Amino acid sequence: MEGQIHFKSPPCVATLEMSENEGREDEGDGDYESLPPHVSLTTHMTAGAVAGVLEHTVMYPVDSVKTRMQSLQPDPKAQYSGVYQALKRIIQTEGLFRPLRGLNITMLGAGPAHALYFACYEQAKHSLSHTFQSKGNSHLANGLAGSIATVLHDAIMNPAEVVKQRMQMYNSPYRGLWDCVRTMTRAEGPGAFYRSYSTQLTMNIPFQAVHFITYELMQERLNPQRQYNPGSHVAAGALAGAVSAAITTPLDVCKTLLNTQENTALDSMRVSGHLTGMANAFRTVYRLGGAAAFFKGVQARVIYQMPSTAIAWSVYEFFKYFMTQQQLEREASKGSR
């Protein structure tokens, strides 16, 4: 995903843990912001994977439009004035399911990529939290852990992104997923799947920083008690997605160029072979379209990211709430025996 959403896993400080002598006036009002201390790593991974897959798939047709709108020198038949007009024309001229082309590789990559992200995030966060802060939750540790996890997440997701975007382009020559993988491997070598990796990381790390800062600021205003409040999670998630998506669009345009190796654009620049490196991508984008080219497709990117992020945060926050309530019920059941 262009900037993909990775969820800040709740601190595993044992806020639900208390001695037998300590009472609780209302066992049903648990602090869901902190998952029960005995929740397994598999549970964290499952929650993240489900939220991640939903995030990538629900608004996938708009993502297809975004990829095409970021084309630097598009075919006259693939020039669009807006997201709705683009979707309408694609369906009318290329078929109902054309906007979903490449969805299969996205789903194959999103599940394990988000699961690995959570596994790495949890382990790194706990280790770094003890280093920076002996008690409680360290924001610095969370940030560093998220950056480390992003490196691993993108290592899995980057090849899926390359294949996805090549299949999304207008007049794509590939018959399907495996044809695209085989053709790229034979013609460009395995390195083609990681040609945009450094650009992806350069985009996703600030994307995550802006995303989490915005989300937390919105939660402080909309949900200061940090209770389970679906409305606040949707609103905060949508705004966080919009802001982070808009700010990182220039890097996303460069990533799309590196992924698709757009022939018309590269031929006009007399680029022989394949375009590599973030610096070369930046120069090529600027020479072909000036500063405005760095924001091609920004409307589609924001429209895609807002509901995707809102849905993903809602799903993850629901998992936190549901699992916490389950744990409290089990504790209450044991205490009544």
Question: How is the secondary structure organized here?
Answer:
Elements: H1 41-58, H2 60-69, H3 83-94, H4 103-132, H5 139-168, H6 177-188, H7 197-222, H8 230-247, H9 249-260, H10 263-268, H11 278-289, H12 298-335
Number of E-state strands = 0
Head-to-tail CA distance between termini: 49 Å
Radius of gyration: 22 Å
What is the helix tally?
12
Strand content: under 5%
Q: Residue ranges: pLDDT <50 for 5 or more in a row?
A: 9-31
State the helicity in percent bands: 55-70%
Topology pattern, helix = H, strand = E: HHHHHHHHHHHH
Shape: elongated
What does the average pLDDT come to? 83
Which structural traits does this protein have?
iron; iron transport; mainly alpha; 12 helices; repeat; 337 residues
Walk me through what this model shows.
Solcar repeats lie at residues 39-127, 137-221, 228-322. It holds the Pfam family Mito_carr. InterPro entries: MCP (IPR002067), MCP_dom_sf (IPR023395), MCP_transmembrane (IPR018108). It comes from Gadus morhua (Atlantic cod). Keywords: Ion transport, Iron, Iron transport, Membrane, Mitochondrion, Mitochondrion inner membrane, Repeat, Transmembrane, Transmembrane helix, Transport. The chain has helices at residues 41-58, 60-69, 83-94, 103-132, 139-168, 177-188, 197-222, 230-247, 249-260, 263-268, 278-289, 298-335. It is elongated. Helix 1 (41-58) runs antiparallel to helix 12 (298-335) and helix 5 crosses helix 7 (197-222). The chain has 12 helices and no strands. It is an all-alpha fold and 337 residues long.
